[in-house]
Design goal:
This protein has 142 residues and is mainly alpha-helical. The chain has 6 helices and 2 strands, in the order ααββαααα. It has a single domain, classed as Sufe protein. Chain: A (Alpha-Beta Complex), CATH 3.90.1010.
Length: 142
Amino acid sequence: MTINEKQDEIIEEFSMVDDWMDRYSMLIDLGQEQTPLAADEKTEQNLIDGCQSRLWLLCNENDGLLYYRAESDALIVKGIVALLISVLNGHTPREILEADLYFIDRIGLREHLSPTRSNGLLAMLKQMRMYALAYETKLQQG
């Protein structure tokens, strides 16, 4: 499934729910489905700067495709990062770098986040793209 197909699927799922309290519940459920990180993965190096809550993000490459894993101590943040992971996992660094993540605005996520959570969302996206850039450079160098 392409990044845009996955985004369209998320937009469709969220459009079925009008109430933002229910949408937050959907996010929390998504976050709780994530496999927790091992204690030794919750390092300062994996911690995202710019998030109000603590968020650890890791990325691995397998056969030229990137796979993210994350965990947060805040339920909403955990859900937001789970959404991003569901869209970006299993794609090439170039696809991730070129992706227009329009679903964030289309589901109303950005407008329903506090300023600090919005900053956290931007920090998550920035770190995910930094991983993609690093892996793209590494793959090009062979």
